[in-house]
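Anyone have tokens for Isoquinoline 1-oxidoreductase? Sequence:
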Amino acid sequence: MQYQLKINGETRTVDAEPGTPLLWVLRDELQLTGTKFGCGVAYCGACTVHVDGYPTRSCQTFVEDAVDTDITTIEGATDKIAQAVQEAWREKDVVQCGWCQSGQIMSAIGLLTENPNPTDDEIRDYMNGNACRCVTYVRINEAVKLASQKLEA
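Reply: yep, here.
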């Protein structure tokens, strides 16, 4: 079946069976491989994209449910907040294996969009649904705080 999806500001037509997770459409059909597969049950957060501006687990979002929405993947995360988060990630040397990073970054962008100056507890609570195999949670929290400071400047 054909679906039209608005992804990273561009309307794309994709062929997929109903019930196909958005994750597989992004990765396999559109070659947007920045969004990662982790657990497949929306627990780890590696597949996080934004749907209508909100962090959403693409492994549990069906393609038909994504029609008439605005989808942003890590490849399309280029606004001021995204740039501040990505810069802070580099400065704090967050990445180790990289498996969780696109999902972590997309969640951090969502947090700072909703709350530009979060406390440590608010950061931990919001980012809680994103697992990191390398356990770089301290650096992730520091990077979110740094990104917040960059946005205030």
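The chain has two domains: 2-74, 80-152.
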